[in-house]
Amino acid sequence: MRKWLPFAVASALALGAGQAAAQGVKEKVTLMLNWYLYSEHAPFFLGKERGFYEQEGIDLDIQEGRGSGPTIQAVAARTVPFGYADVSTMIKIAAKGAPVKAVGIALQTSPMSVMGFADKNIRKPEDIKGRIVAVTPGDSMSQVWPLFLQKTGLKETDFRTVAGDAQTKLNAVITGQADLLLGYVMDQNMKLQDATKKPVYPIRFADYGVNLISSGIISHKDTMKEKPELVRRFMRASTRAFGAAAKNPEAAVDAMLKANPKAGVRETLITGLKLTIVLYHTDDTAQLPPFRVSEKNVADSLAMLVQYGGVDKDAGKPGDYYTNEFLP
Amino acid sequence: MRPTWWQRLLYAPWSRPVLLILVLLVLWDLAIRIFKIPPYLIPAPEAVIRAFLREWPRLLGESLVTTWATLGGFALSIAFGIPMALAIAYSRTVESFLYPLLVFSQSIPKVAIAPLFVVWFGFGIIPKVIAAFLLGFFPVVVSTVVGFKSVEPDMVDLARSMKATKLQTFARISLPQALPHIFAGLKVSVTLAVVGAVVGEFVGSNSGIGYVLQIANGNFDLPLMFAALVVLSMIGVILFVAVDIVERLLIPWHASHRDEFTATA
């Protein structure tokens, strides 16, 4: 009776191995986002739903993050292979020695803006004088704010500043403790509109000559050296995902909501995503697929960061911080 | 034989934690060198010391702001905590209504409700004082309740048999017996009040050590961040020692303050 047991076990194992080979073993890959879910992240969910990642042999796990900084540090420590984070922030930390690089820049035009309720009639930088602005100390926007002030001829003494974390900034504008806050054109203004049903008017930094490259996919330099094929496959799938989302934002938002119903309100997310898609390109990359940033854009951002962002003068060349070599 | 100067230095009570800190600093430096830990993950001790020396005027100024908020919250903890604890200790009714509610309120994370304080009280020192109060309040109440409940009943009976008034019993018997417990609670409370003040600063403030921590974090300036953390810990230590000194003055007879004596040869 016992003699057939080893034979049974061996054939079961062989069957199992055969099945795995037939399916194509998928590699589990984690992508850590820059924040909790909001409209900007929908394309990744669309890509996962439509099987773009699966077709490249990637079993994608999308994790929410707690800020670009922690996400970049997680990639630097190789806790996760890929991160979706603010690339200008990544440049600052890479300049201090972190071995990370951007393999694709999703938002090539900056989403940074200073925004307030439309009924306050703050439409131009001059209207900011005499107002109260809510900022989060230490975040990427507060670092670039002095450059915006310089380019628009404003001085710190022209207005009052209150400081608080992300939730406090929103509360301050909603309760009227502040007139404006520094935020992204598809994030905080959507939240303010959802909460109060009042329209919000954002003054975009990019419209006044302050354009810093923003969110992108980053990876550890060792990952790029040891697993270049994985990076290529991931970027190929992501390029398809972002391209599909640009053509059909509603489907992307639906994919995100299916994966996580608490991600937000459908209409708000669609509006936010449409505002984000506008930022995927600059004029010189308008005809190119997503993620393929122009060298000039990165160079300009690097120069701005050296002058205002506290990045060391001998921070290197743009090529040290980004690469398009893994893009399809 | 009289001990030499370095023997006295070694055995002085304050030198031991300092020695331990020095040993830890050396181990920290060695760990970074041996494991080649990059500076953007953990800073080297000398980078932290340099940041400290470079920024100490700013750190000092901001630490005063945090200390004011801490003291404000601590004062509120005493002002509200001790009378409430007295009511709980002396009345079963009050205890049955109030105590469970107090314990329940402790489980609410203060970080989550701190933004509400800014909405209600604006940007300023008040939200920080309230956050410090909410964190420091509970240890004071619990220890004071325990203190008053553990007064020896025999002593109270003795006082009653000698026709002491309630006030005399309280002042001469109950309070002195409860003081050691109360001070234990105050020591825990003051260190928690520091944490509360910083939480308040994270949420809505443009001054204080919490503010410096946010800026350092945003700039990935880890040496400054660690230096700010050291300053924060020092505030806690100084306040703790201050409470301890007050305790020594008020209850010098308590066992915890009798100095160890070395037996003569």
Number of strands of chain A: 10
Number of domains of chain A: 2
Side-by-side strand order of the widest sheet of chain A: 2-1-3-10-4
How large is the radius of gyration of chain A?
A: 22 Å
The DSSP helix count of chain A reads: 13
Structural class of chain A: alpha/beta
CATH topology of the largest domain in chain A: D-Maltodextrin-Binding Protein, domain 2
Q: In sequence order, what are the helices and strands of chain A, one letter per element?
A: HEHHEHEHEEEHEHEHEEHHHHH
How many helices of chain B? 10
SSE arrangement of chain B, N to C: HHHHHHHHHH
N→C terminal distance of chain A: 58 Å
The CATH homologous superfamily of the largest domain in chain B is termed: MetI-like
Strand content of chain A: 15-25%
* Number of domains as seen in the coordinates of chain B: 2
Superfamily (CATH H level) name of the largest domain in chain A: Periplasmic binding protein-like II
Multimeric state: heterodimer
Q: If classified by CATH, what would the architecture of the largest domain in chain B be?
A: Orthogonal Bundle
* Low-confidence blocks of residues of chain A: 18-22
Relative helix content of chain A: 40-55%
| Largest beta-sheet details of chain A | 5 strands, mixed
Quick structural overview:
The complex is a heterodimer of chains A (328) and B (265). Chain A is of the alpha/beta class and 328 residues long.
SSE map:
The complex is a heterodimer of chains A (328) and B (265).
Chain A: H1 4-23, E1 27-32, H2 42-49, H3 52-55, E2 58-63, H4 68-76, E3 82-86, H5 87-95, E4 100-105, E5 112-117, E6 132-135, H6 140-152, E7 160-163, H7 166-175, E8 180-184, H8 188-196, E9 200-204, E10 215-220, H9 221-226, H10 228-247, H11 249-259, H12 266-277, H13 295-308
Parallel strand pairs in A: 1-2, 1-3, 6-7, 6-8
Antiparallel strand pairs in A: 3-10, 4-10, 5-8, 5-9
Chain B: H1 5-11, H2 15-35, H3 45-90, H4 92-106, H5 110-121, H6 126-149, H7 153-161, H8 166-204, H9 209-218, H10 222-250
